[in-house]
Amino acid sequence: MSDYPGRYWHRLDDGRIQCDLCPRDCRLHEGQRGACFVRQRTGDAMVLTTYGRSSGFCIDPIEKKPLNQFYPGSSVLSFGTAGCNLACKFCQNWDISKSREMDTLMDQASPRAIAEAAQRAGCQSVAFTYNDPVIFAEYAMDTADACRELGIKSVAVTAGYMGAEARRDFYAKMDAANVDLKGFTDEFYVKLCGARLRPVLDTLVYLRHATDVWTEITTLLIPGKNDSDAEIEAQSKWMMRELGSDVPLHFTAFHPDYKLTDIAHTPAATLKRARKIALAEGLRYVYTGNVHDSDGGTTFCPGCDEPLIVRDWYEILSYGLTPEGRCAHCDSEVPGRYGHFERPWGRRRVGVRLATAA
Fold first, then answer.
1. Which of 1, 208, 219, 305 stands 20 to 30 A from 105 (CA)?
2. Which residue(s) pair with 45 in the sheet?
3. 232-266 confidence digits (pLDDT tens)
4. C-alpha to C-alpha distance for 279 and 284, rounded to whole angstroms
């Protein structure tokens, strides 16, 4: 299942075709591929070369995406493909996102097969992750449709770098998203990601105000690059102003990888400092990740400040919400998506093979 007809492109007067999927606006001659590597001009059309092919499937805790207020404790079937439309020098999944080898895509599965596998495994959702689902949008959207038919939720883990038309179509299919807000200056995006900040902010505003998609944000803090008090404060103020106080924010720790190996791991103290700044600006749900931090992993009640979901890494130690998402102590509403909390999945990560044809 490859070379699937791609959407979101148009012909140019000079004979090239332009990809409209993301703000890169790649303009292609015959046989050329876009910056993402997986969208190619073939004849007088665009094709997606990775449709139906994956770098692998795993069952994860939903908190690993990270989503802390979307069916906490549930399991999610996760998969990605290859390629990416950003060029982050610090990419933590570079072996997948920067891959130019299509033979790294070992598993084949139709959208229906993925939905059925999630159902058999008891997963509440399917996540498009590991590399950015923006670049395999058609595959992700078809899979989301198949999941919806079986009552399975769909989750996008994405950098949010997407064109307006594609963004509208894509998020109409999604139930939740974790968007990487990689930094809060255009300079950071240009120098370290090969992209621009504004389209990501546009995606976040769109998600918050024009959709019902449950949205959480992740910012990977890199020492000396995007971890200053001033930048964290500016990001928090923008979130309060444009998104409101209830969108969860995850500050996560960087580790040296890909082209950024000369910078040390992010200290836990940096994440705790960032969390303190964001809370002081009015954000209600601020988490820390990739470090052991009890408070930074806990969901607190906005009304009485009781610890409602206490986590140890991806393990839920105690749970104090009603199925409707209200505090069991004071009945305050905690924004998110919830249900009956039964036996949590825990921190397990289980590989799954889906070697099926279309």
1. 219
2. 42
3. 999 999 999 999 999 999 999 998 877 888 999 99
4. 6
